[in-house]
Design brief:
Shape: elongated
Largest sheet: 10 strands, mixed
Strand content: 15-25%
Number of strands: 22
CATH topology of the largest domain: Rossmann fold
Helix content: 25-40%
Distance between the termini: 82 Å
Structural class: alpha/beta
CATH class of the largest domain: Alpha Beta
Radius of gyration: 25 Å
Length: 461
């Protein structure tokens, strides 16, 4: 149904226009903006006053005149069309198909802003998700319904890591993999990066189980605000209406936050830390809290947001606020990357707060928790011994310390390092951990129960 149309604008400032409003206009309402030649652009209401509406245009405002531009209010929020043909499709940041196939044939459309989940209906996240990556599965385990971000930096291979996780992720001991699907959202990514993801998924045969939303670097930055919302809307449909287990990977959240800051500056809002809007925390929480499980559906949404820390600064507002909202983080390290180690995951600052609920007998293995704790303790000691060795020299170290140095070398080059196509089961990961821990004297394995040491390393000879 055609909405009420107004002619003329009060102002145009970048992607923001101000137009006369109708009486029942609401925040987030979609509008159609037409220039004097009839060319159509889409926008949404982001602010209201008594007589005017502030509209954010998804695209360029070039060619819009104050006198001849027409604004039509559609009396509906932005919606994503969903249906059975959703999987295997590639969309732009606004949910429009860009893969050359016809639009989804369905009458069902869902508000991209989502609906709040009743806290009473939430189910505690649990059940192990195997990524095939030892550093994650062994020490920073992911569970269904969790939100576990990747803290990266410019130049580090977070894209390759994300692609590997999507290719290899599977539910361990759950309902099987037949209902395990992925949603990928790329915000402000380069064309070659988007092609890398598409090609990687095609070659590995997982594209049919992936829904992709790509907002490229040359697309209007405003589009990045909608991209994760479209992706999460698709995930909610697959999880809560189709009963599937959905893994959502979103990259790069830093580009999303930069777009948010751009809009805030254009609107003349009072800036917060480093120029970001004061509502950055609540805006990110609005996205991250759409992960989880509910009692009314067997499905689940697990999130892996990826962000690049500006200047490698973990105290920057984006990683800082993300850390408050999510349940841990996977941290990539520039020093490990320079040493040729992939994936360059620094396990010491990495953390999964829900790991304890997804591992153990019946889900992974009875030794998982103890082995993980011992690896953390031993590798932490390696860092201290390396600092000492840089001062007094390795030759002056004690025999025990020298064994720790050997352990640290093996841990980085055999446990953390693995090929992009190397998919390790959790059993292989734990067996490899025992093999590396056996370098240390038995009395140094103080985080592991004696019965487990006898079970996996045998009686001490």
């Amino acid at each position: 149904m055609k909405g009420l149309e107004y002619k003329g604008l009060s102002s145009v400032d970048g992607p923001i226009i101000i137009a006369q409003r109708k009486d029942d206009v609401f925040f987030g309402e979609i509008v159609i903006v037409r220039d004097r030649f009839g060319e159509k652009r889409t926008g949404r209401v982001i602010d209201l006053s008594e007589k005017y509406a502030v509209v954010q245009v998804f695209g360029s405002t070039t060619g819009l005149s104050l006198d001849d531009t027409r604004v039509e209010f559609l009396s509906s929020p932005m919606e994503l069309r969903v249906g059975d043909g959703l999987l295997g499709r590639v969309f732009n940041g606004l949910g429009e198909p860009i893969d050359g196939f016809a639009p989804i044939i369905s009458s069902q459309k869902i508000n991209v802003n989502g609906y709040p989940i009743n806290p009473y209906a939430r189910v505690y996240p649990k059940d192990f998700i195997q990524t095939g990556i030892s550093a994650i599965d062994g020490m920073v385990s992911l569970t269904r319904g969790q939100k576990l971000p990747v803290f990266s930096s410019s130049g580090l291979p977070h894209d390759r890591l994300a692609a590997q996780i999507i290719r290899q992720a599977k539910i361990k001991g759950g309902d099987g993999d037949e209902n395990f699907v992925m949603v990928f959202a790329g915000m402000g990514i380069k064309h070659d990066v988007s092609q890398f993801f598409v090609k990687s998924f095609e070659e590995s045969g997982v594209l049919s189980k992936v829904v992709m939303f790509l907002s490229l670097a040359n697309a209007p930055s405003i589009e990045r605000i909608i991209t994760p919302r479209c992706a999460l809307t698709a995930a909610e449909y697959l999880a809560f209406e189709k009963g599937m287990h959905v893994l959502v990977v979103m990259t790069d959240m830093t580009n999303y936050c930069e777009a948010l800051r751009e809009i805030s500056t254009t609107r003349g809002e009072v800036p917060g830390r480093k120029g970001y809007p004061g509502y950055l925390y609540s805006d990110l929480a609005e996205l991250y809290e759409r992960a989880g499980r509910v009692s009314t559906s067997p499905g689940s949404i697990t999130q892996i947001p990826i962000l690049t820390m500006p200047n490698d600064d973990v105290s920057h507002p984006i990683p800082d606020l993300t850390g408050y909202i999510t349940e841990g983080q996977i941290t990539l390290d520039r020093e490990l990357f320079a040493a040729g180690i992939f994936p360059p995951i620094n396990v010491l600052p990495s953390l999964s707060r829900l790991m304890k609920d997804g591992i153990g007998e019946g889900m992974t293995r009875d030794d998982h928790k103890d082995v993980s704790n011992q690896l953390f303790a031993a590798y932490s000691k390696v860092k201290s011994i390396r600092g000492l060795a840089s001062i007094i020299g390795e030759d002056e170290l004690s025999e025990n310390d020298k064994k720790y140095m050997v352990f640290g070398e093996k841990f980085e080059k055999e446990f953390i390092r693995q090929g992009e196509r190397e998919n390790r089961s959790v059993e292989e990961t734990l067996d490899l951990a025992w093999q590396i821990l056996s370098i240390l004297p038995r009395n140094e394995l103080y985080r592991i129960d004696d019965e487990l040491i006898k079970k996996y390393l045998g009686e001490e000879g």
